Structures are given as structure tokens and as C-alpha cells.
Amino acid sequence: MTPQERLDAAGGWLTVDLGAVAANYRMLRQMVGPGVRTAAAVKADCYGLGAARVVPVLEAAGCRNFFVATLEEGLSLRRITGHDSAIFLLNGPMPGTESLLQQARLIPVVNSLEQLAAWRALAFRLETPLSAVLQVDSGMSRFGLSAADVARLAAEPELLDGVQVVLVMSHLACADEPAHPANRAQREAFLRLRALLPDTLGSLAASSGIFLGADWHFDLVRPGAALYGINPTPDADNPMRPVVRLQARVVQTRVIEPGTAVGYGARFIANRTSRIATLSAGYADGISRHASGAHVVLCGYEHTRLPVIGRVSMDSIAVDMTDLGDVEIAPGAPVDLIGPHTPLEALATASDTIGYEVLTALGQRYHRTYIATDPAGG
Ligand SMILES: *Cc1c(COP(=O)(O)O)cnc(C)c1O
To answer: pTM (2 decimals)?
Structure first.
């Protein structure tokens, strides 16, 4: 197939701007300053955007520390990254996987005394010290050593024999709400717990945490979302460059009379003579079934926001194009679901979710194009 045939064959198009990813990385690094390392969270295939294409761009921008969730992600990332890049597994080692992890030179984030014991046992078997990140639970109750676990490590430091702690980290639950009291409370808990552990680098902030200010940066920050253009400051304008454009295409249009139903469950009834377009992307492509109420724009007519109506189907959505008047809408015409006039956050809000879930839900059927705009601007 020719490139054009491949485009034509797809129901929808996903365009990822790698220059914007690089620009976002550099902006965050500038914000935290030269004394702080800027790692990247690249789990879930770089939030659905494709680690094989995105990670090399981050490495070219200077990133050398990468966080994934699982061993499987770590193993495939190891084939992408350069030798001197560190790969950390946020979920830590699943029982029995420690050797595989070590052979691939992956570094576990140790979240429990059980994970620590298993990692240490491997270090003893191999008669070599093994690196690990220690995660402490500073108040989110998700991953990490509890305060009691940390107290035990402080009392029995031999539990860390054979383990080289390279980072002590924790994760903020409410960083996207800057005024939330949990942020300060978690920072204080982190400071208290960290003081009981070996003296090494510390890390607390992901994307939103970076924007809380220098008190949250410590020695290493771990942004994911902001790199991919998701707004890390939901209450303010998005400071990041948009990375994703998502387009579906018109399959057909029809004119319906007032009182006519659209879609499964007849949940939309036209109250005027309406021109309806059926687009070729649906919930199998990650457009939430709750996205009726979202708005799209017909490419070339970006000034008119067009509502998604009725229920989202597996392979299609319906859009009310009446407000375009008698503009010609040709079969195959592209429509922006996410684009310069239809931000990711708007689609997320209309779908009753967040940009993170919209990106990670994007299906496999889109034709993907990677472009590289100038990282410096434009
Ligand atoms: C996902 C994740 C990150 C990145 O979070 P963003 O909000 O996407 O920047 C950082 N740290 C941990 C522990 C995570 O799970």
C-alpha cells in the first residue's frame, strides 16, 4: 500500500507531534533548573502515543531516567533506550520475576518489605549489590512502604544489606489541586520518612507537582502527562504544547426531520430539520460511550463547534452539522475530535474523565503519523 492508500484505508487519524514532546520536556527541565533531574513517565506506551517513537525523542532531548509500570513494559523499553538510560519499574518486582528484571538491567521501585526481601535475596544469590528505588507512602495509600515499614528499616538497617538505594520517592494524590492541604501534608510526611532511610536522591513530583513549586522538586521529577500535552494545571490555561491531533472521517450525511431519532436507544430526537453526519470512529477507538455532548469541528470550518449527538456506537459517532448551513461535507472529510480548536481537555470533560484516560484509551485502528515540528516553537 502507498502511504496515501494507508491513510485512506483508516477510519481515523492520530497525529503525534514529537517536536512538541521535546519542547514540553525542555520546558519542564527549565522550570526545575539544572540541579534537578527530569525523568519521564513512559508507562502505558507513553500514555498511548507510542514509546518506540516518543522515547528516542526524549533521549535526544537529554532524558536518561524512565519510569514504566510493569516488567513487560520495562523489557520492551530496554530494547528502545540507550545503554546509559535507567529504567525504573513503578510496580516493583512481581514474585519470581526478580532475575528477569535484573538481567535486563531494570531497577525496581520497591514498595513493600516483601519486595525488598526478594530483591535482597537475589543480591545475595548473585553476590553483588543491586540498585533499587524505595517508595514510601506519604498519604496516598497506593504504593510504597508504610511509616511502620520505614521505622522497621531504620531499626534494622541490615534489611537493606546488598541493596543500593539510588532514590527515595513518593507520589502526590492531589497535586492538580494546588490549594489542597494534602500536598503539604504529603511533603512533610515524605521529609520525615526520607530522613529515616539511607541518604540519597529524593523524588516527589510528577507533572502537576512540578507546578506546585521548587519545594516539591527535590532531586528528580517524574512528569508524564505534561510531556504529552495534558494540562498539568487543570484550573488554569494549559502551559504545555499540544501533542495530539485526533481526526475521524465523515462516512455519510443525511437530513432528518424534527422528531427523528438518532442512534442506539433513540436517545437523541431532532427538534429541527437537521443535517447529521456519521463519523468513522467509535468506542472501539477509545471515544467514550459517555462522549455525547462533546464537540468536534469539520476541518476547514473550525469556527463552528458541532455537537456529538445520540449514543456513541462501536465504530461510529453521529454529529449534528446543521450549524454549518449548506457547506459541502464530502464523504471522507476529516473532522477534528482533538485538535487546535477542540482541546483534549474538552473531550475529556465531555466524556466525564481526564485527558490521561482519553489518551490511554485511544484504540489501535487509527492511522498514526508522527510529525516533528520545531521544538523551539511553531
Ligand atoms: C504515572 C506516574 C507519574 C507520572 O504522572 P503524571 O501525572 O502523568 O505526570 C509519576 N510518578 C508515578 C509514581 C506515577 O505513577
So the answer is: 0.96
